[in-house]
Amino acid sequence: MRGHPLPLASRAAAFAFASLLSLAAAGFASGCSDEAEPPADAADAGAEAAPDGQDAAPDAATDGGTDAADARPDAPSEAGATFCETLTPAPRFCDDFDDGDVDDDWAVRNVLGGSTLELDPASYASSPTSMHVTTKALDAAQSGPAHLRTTVTGAVSRVKLAFGVRIETNPAVTKGALALATLDVSASHFFTLYLRDAPQDGSEPAAILEEIDGATVRRHALTKLPAMGVWTRVTIDVDLGAGVASVLLGTEKALDAAVVSAIPGTEATIRVGAVYLFGPADAFEAGFDDVVVDF
Question: pTM for this one?
Answer without folding.
Answer: 0.79
